[in-house]
Design a protein that fits this description.
- The strands form 5 sheets. The chain has a 5-stranded mixed sheet. A two-stranded antiparallel sheet has the order 1-2.
- A hairpin with a 6-residue loop joins strand 10 (about 160) and strand 11.
- The chain contains 4 helices and 13 strands.
- It is about 20% helix and about 35% strand.
- It is globular.
- The chain is α+β, with helices and mostly antiparallel strands.
- The longest helix has 18 residues, at about 60-75.
Amino acid sequence: MKEVATVFGDDMTRVIHGDSLAVLEQMIPDASVDLIFCDPPYNIGKVFGGKVEKWDRDEDYIQWCQRWLSLCVSKLKPNGSLYVMTSTQFMPYFDVYLRDKIDILSRIVWSYDSSGVQAKNFYGSMYEPILFGVKNKAQYTFNSDDILVEARTGAERKLIDYRKNPPQPYKSEKVPGNVWYFPV
């Protein structure tokens, strides 16, 4: 019998190298994963290791993505979370497909300055979209205290919230919004 994948690590931390569909179908039990982050091939013609990453037909790419997206959803625990990145061209297909399978809580924009190839006849992409969804919006893990950022209104301007009794300074930290700027 042919081995599905090569596994590196131990029970606590594993990297599984193999075909994503085979690994998801044969090696990962249903309802066993807390968090999944997917960054699949984007089907936009980039070259990786000498191979052009482009399906012959967009429909074939979308069907392949729907297969692994469904498998990912089935592998999530009832309180599990899913982050999915893809190209701006294909994110609408992912979004619509996942809407009746998970609760999409955020549509995140990862913004960056791309100094590489610049578009000349259209607007070049300066962001990548990310969906954040959960199986159960009433019960999931979101470690907000671990990702706090400076709240400019509260920290820099030292504004007072007069809606509170007694009035209080605005908080100086907050959970980030859905536009993230990280250089590539």
